[in-house]
Amino acid sequence: MGTSDAEIVRRVRDGDTAAFAVLVARYRDRLGRYAMQMLGDREDAEEALQDAFVRAYRSLARFDDRERFGPWLFAILVNRCRTTGRRTTRRHQIFVRDEASLERAPAPAAPEWDDTVRWALERLAPGMREAFLLKHVEDLDYDEISRLTGAGVSALKMRVKRACEQLRVLLTEVERV
Amino acid sequence: MFERDDDVLERMIERLREPVEMDPTLDARVMTRVSAPPIRDSRLAAAWDWLRRPRDFSLTPLSALAAAAVLAGLALWLGSRVANRASTLARPDTAVVQFVFVAQGATSVALVGDFNDWDATTTPMHPARQGGLWSVALPLPPGRHRYAFLINGWLWLSDPTAPRALDDFGTPSSVVTVGG
């Protein structure tokens, strides 16, 4: 078994900056998956992920030892994805004036399953996508999601339910093509 | 977890749960950023050393006059910059808005909003000596601005004293209206 997160955090706090690389390597892919799925773009995901690690490092002095490092880091990433997502949305709003045409965007013709998954996920509103991914992909319970997002448990349940309903319709539509 | 007709949704979730491989060079980029000494600090330290280091130099009357002229020019330029800034703040189409938030025990509070592209580094708030009070004032153009407070770099909270608005994430943010 490798060195625990807590031990590495202690070493970094004691001045061993290089030890932080172990945490980056340990969490890179797991957190990267969430960022990729949330933002739908590899470049944006890498930017959010990089920022999250750097912010975590700079905040390490304030990290409470009683907390677990993984969820703490995840909370920072969720916030970075929100910030990046807002910027991206604004960027899209500048280039795509006709939002109604986006709503009518047809399902990809004879798509690969990966394309379908990405297409359906992109159709969800960011808040629903976030709740859906945290619940069903990251497998967090509602209390954890509530702590991460600041949203109430009942609002989150509603968001996840609506996301599932919407995805079911979208995926079924593509299956029929 | 799902009903029988949710096969398609379960397949999607299975696909989404598969591991994703990120670019391993990202590690090096992160480590470069965290290992770099804070530029501002090192520059300040270098400037401070330079100022403290004693020097002997001689000056002719002509070069003393030239130096005095340069200093006078610099003072005039700085004066005009301050005047310009004051006139910007006083422009009739902007209003200086004071944002205040109580966050006992917080180590940092930043004001984020559509006016700073929701960037947590642009508008840090300043703590009062006691009471957990954080504040910042900034000029805003007329219109409706959405904002929130970012506590300790990750906790997102709305302003309890202002009207609320929900953003795309259902996250509460607040609204301030300037003018009109």
Question: How would you characterize the overall build of this protein?
Answer:
The complex is a heterodimer of chains A (about 180) and B (about 180). Chain A is mainly α. Chain A has nine helices and no strands. In chain A, helix 2 runs parallel beside helix 4. The longest helix of chain A is centred in the middle third of the chain and has 27 residues, at about 70-95. In chain B, the strands form two sheets. In chain B, strands 2, 5, 6, 7 and 8 form a five-stranded antiparallel β-sheet that branches. Chain B has a three-stranded antiparallel β-sheet with strand order 1-4-3, with no helix packed on it. Chain B has about 180 residues and is α+β, with helices and mostly antiparallel strands. Residues about 85-90 of chain B have low confidence and may be disordered. The interface between A and B is large, with 56 and 44 residues.
Low-confidence stretches of chain A: 91-104
Helix content of chain B: 25-40%
Strand count, sense and barrel status of the largest sheet of chain A are:
none
Give me the secondary-structure category of chain B. Answer: alpha+beta
Cα Rg of chain A: 18 Å
Could you tell me the strand content of chain A as a percent range?
A: under 5%
Taken as a percent bin, the fraction of beta residues of chain B is 25-35%
Mean pLDDT of chain A: 84
- Multimer state: heterodimer
Biggest interface: chains and residue counts?
A-B, 56 and 44 residues
Range of helix content of chain A: over 70%
Uncertain segments of chain B are: 86-90
**Number of E-state strands of chain B:** 8
